[in-house]
Design brief:
Strand content of chain B: under 5%
Largest interface: A-B, 24 and 25 residues
Radius of gyration of chain B: 22 Å
Distance between the termini of chain A: 91 Å
Number of strands of chain A: 11
Strand order of the largest sheet of chain A: 9-2-11-10
Helix content of chain A: 25-40%
Oligomer: heterodimer
Strand order of the largest sheet of chain B: 1-2
Strand content of chain A: 5-15%
Largest sheet of chain B: 2 strands, antiparallel
Radius of gyration of chain A: 26 Å
Distance between the termini of chain B: 73 Å
Chain lengths: 261, 129
């Protein structure tokens, strides 16, 4: 049968209408049935710890010597297969430094001896306005909705812009394959490969399973971790009661690690 | 035909190069799927065997992005079973493909594929040594 243009257009129009109406009718009568095979198959663990804005408080009165800090550092570095590379190519997620290096803009001649000589713990500050995220060309480092500044090692191309951007020196670059420098490899956390940047992630992998960050657990109460957006949380209560400092606040990065003085 | 002396030899050379993979393989042994050692204790994979054979890399790629970028780590399979979306903790665990050499590597080697996964992800049996 010969078909002219007019008949063809009529048929095409009717077929389209039938298709659209059929889909709409299915959605009305049995919502989601058409996409049943693509139903949500992934989710969070029910016990996951969640927050609107994670933050950490470091009680400097409880941390006085490097040895006390070492427990937290070891807990973190062992769990995350952070290699121990001597010299200036060290990889660090958690470390200590002097007052003048941690708080360079809080210097004056009369800082008490105790503070001047005390080591201070340093880590990624999980800033609200993280320069590392802004400069990363591949979005390998990104800020999650809950404030954690994350690293996606799969996407890191090792350009080290983030290291140049971070004003806290919280990022380390793997110049070598780190595996030979890890004493006991924990098989359940990946090591990194040569040529990627790494840093503290607030133990987001532990939070996802309902555990607090490793350093917080090891600190015996000297580190406090919680939701800054929740007025009833412990972090908010402590911040109301005690005076706190943040690192380099004048840079406008809005760090979310607070030092209780 | 103009320039037949150049065009015809040119075409012959072109066809020879294009069909190189076909005639260079004549007489060689056909590909044989390697024999794999399957887990002793676990009978079921995350999804059906056929699906996994075809799509395991897509699944792992999805898991990677969902876990790292979207913070979603719990996977429900077609049969309703739940899995931790982790190459090391689920796929390579001692109950499943604990031996990478006799499962993953045999296939990857036969197909001359070298995934980068192991550069970072530790095979648990190696970590325990």
């Amino acid at each position: 049968m010969a078909i002219n243009r007019r008949t063809f257009l009529k048929a095409a129009g009717l077929t389209t209408l039938a298709g659209v109406a059929g889909h709409a009718a299915m959605e009305l009568l049995a919502p989601g049935a058409l996409e049943a095979s693509g139903a949500p198959k992934v989710g969070e663990y029910p016990e996951a710890l969640t927050a609107k804005r994670w933050a950490m408080l470091i009680d400097t009165e409880k941390f006085t010597t490097a040895q006390v800090y070492q427990k937290c550092i070891d807990a973190c570095h062992v769990l995350h297969n952070v290699p121990h590379i001597p010299g200036d190519q060290e990889i660090k997620w958690l470390w200590t430094d002097s007052f003048k290096h941690v708080f360079p803009d809080q210097q004056h001649a009369l800082v008490p001896e105790r503070i001047k000589n005390q080591p201070f713990m340093a880590l990624c500050n999980h800033c609200d306005n993280p320069p590392c995220v802004r400069v990363c060309p591949t979005k390998a480092t990104f800020k999650r909705d809950d404030g954690i500044v994350m690293m996606d090692m799969h996407r890191c191309i090792g350009c080290r812009y983030c290291m140049a951007g971070c004003p806290y020196g919280a990022r380390s670059f793997n110049f070598w394959d780190p595996r030979p420098f890890i004493e006991n490899i924990d098989p359940y956390y990946p090591t990194r490969m040569k040529g990627v940047v790494e840093k503290c992630t607030f133990c987001e992998d532990r939070l996802a399973k309902g555990q607090l960050p490793a350093c917080v657990e090891a600190s015996e109460g000297a580190l406090i971790f919680g939701d800054l957006a929740n007025e009833d949380s412990e972090v908010r209560r402590v911040l109301r009661e005690r005076y706190s400092l943040r690192r380099k606040p004048s840079l406008g990065t809005d760090p979310h690690v607070f030092y209780l003085i | 035909m103009y320039n037949a002396g150049k065009i015809i030899p040119g075409l012959v050379i072109f066809l020879g190069l294009v069909t190189f993979p076909f005639w260079s393989n004549i007489g060689r042994a056909a590909f044989e799927a390697p024999e794999l050692v399957f887990p002793e204790t676990e009978e079921e994979c995350v999804e059906s065997g056929d699906w996994m054979r075809a799509n395991h890399m897509i699944l792992l790629d999805d898991w990677r992005d969902l876990a790292v970028r979207d913070n979603l780590r719990l996977y429900s399979s077609e049969t309703g079973k739940r899995f931790d979306m982790s190459l090391t903790k689920t796929c390579l665990s001692s109950q499943c493909h604990a031996n990478k050499d006799t499962f993953c590597d045999r296939c990857h080697d036969a197909l001359a594929i070298a995934p980068h996964c192991w550069d970072c992800h530790v095979v648990p049996s190696i970590g325990e040594e």
